[in-house]
Structures are given as structure tokens and as C-alpha cells.
Amino acid sequence: MTTTTSAATLRPAWSRDEGAARVRALFATAFTDEPDGVWSAPGRVNLIGEHTDYNGGLCLPIALPHRTFVALRARDDETIRLVSAQEASSVVAVSLSSVAPGALSGWAAYVAGVAWALRQAGFVVRGFDATVDSCVPYGAGLSSSAALESAFAVALDEVFGLGLASDDAGRARLAAACVRAENEIAGAPTGGLDQASSLRCHAGQALLLDCLDGSVEQVPFDLSAAGLALLVVDTKAEHSHATGGYGARRATCEEAATLLGVPLLRSVADEPDGGATALARLDDGTPEGSVRVRRVRHVLSEIGRVREFVGLLRSGAVDEVGPAMDASHASLRDDYEVSCVELDLVVTAARAAGALGARMTGGGFGGSAIALVRAGTESAVAAAVAAAFAESGLGAPEFLLALPSDPAA
Ligand code: GLA
User: What is the structure's pLDDT at 372?
Assistant: First the structure.
């Protein structure tokens, strides 16, 4: 049996200077010229409120200190040329006029999709040359794709003078363009959580996002004042939301809403009985009906847990949110069925090592989990999780610390 408590290293976030130097150097090599500027956008972790966004529900993300950097120079024509340090540094060229649903694949779809969506919204956007580098772990459920979209959104906003990034209302419009890029051009049927997080979160705050109308409230989230830290564990179990279970979960929720005669499940959550009558109506005795009941029960209970979590933050009881995190994980595992062996193991091992609460974060089927721990115990909890993975014959997970950080700029 492995009982190692040895070094579980934390993945560092690059400073703004380091990220900027990387993409500038790549730009000089790829395009033998100077960019107009450098922009960056963060990944996110959602504290609670999972699979609620596309149901018009509530979410509570924070922006990570880990960011995706973009050096960009505007062009006068329709050409987009892209180079990513994560993609073998070869140039990808796309004509902006050829961007359409189904026309592109790969990472360029997310970037060209943002330019396309801004044009669809009536803004004048032309081509550009750009280089990308990132310390947001890729495919880890920490919104590397939203960080990419959002970094380009603020870059295009500035170089083409759109004037949207200067206030929250404009940022909501940029986020909407990023969502269209992801849904319509990249083909991933995700909700708006990730893009709102990257563009609308503030340092030191959690973002209470109401997906019914897109409104937000900043909720102070001062981990260090509470003597706490938020450990993120990337299980390295790969997930993709462009295929498979994510779309199926969303479709089931939409079907249930149609059966209940409401536009979104949020309407049911807001009923005086918290949706109990609606749940009973969905239970038609068939196996499909029972799946629907469980999926909807997760959405309704999760919206309630966001309210509970926010209430605790507002009353200064940050160290009391653990049970809500644990209950969220159980609901995602048992009712929504989007957890996996690796995520469940993080949660169990972290709690056994003293975490106040732990849960998967993001869409699930792999990706990352978060654990709220006492400051000073981060390494011990990480080591315990790493040891549990080793004992189960799983590959080594990666760790990073989440501190509520700045939005795209
Ligand atoms: C992914 C999606 C989001 C959201 C979460 C689950 O991160 O991109 O829109 O649905 O899953 O909360």
C-alpha cells in the first residue's frame, strides 16, 4: 500500500508579464512583426450550481488566476491566421467570410467563431493575425475553451473599437458572442456559465449568475481571511462536451420542461413548493420517466444549494459551505449521473484528509474536482488524493490553487 505524503506539486499561474512575453515571442517568430497588443482571459471553477445554466438557473463561479494569453494584430482583409503554442505552432489560416455552422473544426473554430458571432451581432470585425499560449489546463473542465474565446473577444473589442469590454453590460454581450461561437461554430451545446465567468467575474468575488436573465451579483469570497484555500484537482480523465452525455442531459431537461409546459426548469424551481408537484407529474412509472425525475430533481435541488451557499457567504460563514458542496456532488453523481470514478475518488480522499467539502466542478464525465481546505493543509490533502489515485492504479492527477481572480482584459 502506498502511503506517500510526498510532493504533490501545484501548477503555477503565469504572471501577466510572463504570459505576455510568451505570446509576443511566438508572434515575432510566426509573423515577424509586432502585435497591436496582448490580452488574456481566465479559466474558471464553479463553486456550486452545476448543469443549471442551460435551465435558466443559478451558478456561482470564480475566475482562476490561470489565464490564456493572446497577442493579436488587426488586418484589413478577411484572413485570420492563428498560431498556438499548444498546437505544434503551425499556422492555421481561415477566411472570415467562410465561417459558418459546420464549416470549421478544431480549436480555430472557437476563435473564428467569436469574430463570426460579433459580426452576426452587427459589429464591424475584420481579419487578424494572432498567437496563443495558455497555462489553463486543457480539457480539464476548467474552461480552457471559454478562456480562449474570451481572450479573443476582448482583443477584437479593442482593436476594432467595439467599446463593449468597458462595462458589465457590454461584457455580457461579448459573453453572448462567445456562447454562439461555441454552440454554433464549434458545435458544443454548452450553456453560458463559462463565458460569463471569464468575462464578468471580479477578483476577490464569486459571481452569482442568474441564467434566467443574465443578471449578476458580485459576492465577496475572501478565502484567506477565512483561513481557507480552494484546491483544484485535475483528474486527467478526459471529457468532451461536443459529444455524448452533456448534450443528452441537456436534451432530457428540455424534454422535461416541455412536458411540464414551462420554457425552462427554472420556472418550476421558483414555484412555492420548490417543484415537488412538477416532479410528481414527471413520474409516469416508466424507466424514462424515472430518469427524468432524477435529472430534474438535481437541477431543482442544485438551484436551492446555490442560494444556501450564497447566504452563507453573505453572512460570513465561508467555512460552513462544505455540506452544500458535498450534497452537490452526491446529486451530480446519483441523480444527474455525470461524475466518474476519478471525480468520486478525489472527493472521498479529500474529505478523508480533512477537506471541509468537495465536489466535481464543470460539466463532469472527467475533468476537475474542488476541495475546500484549511489554509496550510493544501499539500497534505493533495498528497492524500495523489496517494489514493496511485493505490487505485490511476494516473497521477494535477493540482492547482483557485483564488478568485480578474476577468478577461
Ligand atoms: C460545462 C458547460 C457549462 C455548464 C457546465 C455545467 O462547463 O460549458 O455551460 O453547463 O458544464 O455546470
Answer: 98
